[in-house]
Amino acid sequence: MFIVFDTLNVYYIPQYMPVIQELMHRGHTVKLVCYSNKNDQEALAKTFDEVGVECIWVTDTQEAEQVYLTIKPDWIFFGNQFPHLDSVHQYSKTAQLGHGVGPKPSYYHKSITPMTVRFIEGSLRLVKIKQYYPNDNFIEVGFCKLDPLFKHQDLGLDLTALGLDTSKKTILYAPTFNPSSLECFPDNWPDDFKEYNILIKPHSLTQVRKQYANQRAKLAKWSEYSNVYVANENDISLLPFIQHADILLSEASSTLFEFAAVDRPVIVCNFFKLKWSYRGIFKYRFEKRFGKDNVLYNGIGLHVEKYKSLIKAIPEQLANPQAYQANRLQYTQEHVGPTDGLASERIVDYIEKYDKS
């Protein structure tokens, strides 16, 4: 088969990679279609090269549509909606493979236009999405992005090479770009946690978009501390950081679910900076995007309301990792799905059998 992965944003790649590798292992032909209006082709050249397959660059979805009508792949994988499904369905089958299992309503509503199949992670998410779209085709497979973690593969982050002390516990701070707690952390916060390694993995959009320059200024200051490693724009995968971390700090990110799936403590930062279009009279926009019905992580770990609370909370959670263990297990079953490392195999099994049916 000939399979293409529609890579609207570079941060889709960690979700795609286990499936790409499984397809190539089975002898299928794989290509990426990448968007120059969303990604800096020159700055991210290393990242795209490391995928190990040809990347066809387009400027927008209209150009992508024309590419698909020309090359006629058997399957196209999408990480989000695509506005030209009717035309590409003339020649190709389509699969939706969401790049996260976060709390945003968009997780469900990106399926408003049905593809041939959408692969779903956990059992609760499958039940809920079927309520929204009872006539569409959803298959529960697990969260393929995490397959390498569950298979205990070496994911390539060397703490010693980064100048960190492997005898210390390691904090992973993985803020999203909006709403983000990043700007609520003080410039000198690594001083408060000298006895720990600190890995900081910002969202890929924080690294590249002009409106997040203030966030990058914070990251630059933190990177000067000897106990800190701040991911760069080519560190697109969170998995190497999860592999080496003992505890996670985040706010409204699917990272919470991913880290809970390896059964380690998470702390939810309930303090964050909203952009102006989510504040004041525009607060309804925030509620719409992060609606109460979709704030699914209330019990996933300890919630803190201000930065200073972390000084006490982090050592307490590390000393009592069992505190939210039952909750983490439940969240994993319901939202992440099976943790056997075989999600990508189930996806490839499905599309191979579909072609034969």
UniProtKB/TrEMBL annotation:
Protein name: CDP-glycerol--poly(Glycerophosphate) glycerophosphotransferase
InterPro entries according to UniProt: Glycerophosphate_synth (IPR007554), TagF_C (IPR043148), Teichoic_Acid_Biosynth (IPR051612)
Species for this entry: Shewanella litoralis
SUPFAM superfamilies from the UniProt entry: UDP-Glycosyltransferase/glycogen phosphorylase
PANTHER family (UniProt xref): TEICHOIC ACID GLYCEROL-PHOSPHATE PRIMASE, TEICHOIC ACID GLYCEROL-PHOSPHATE TRANSFERASE
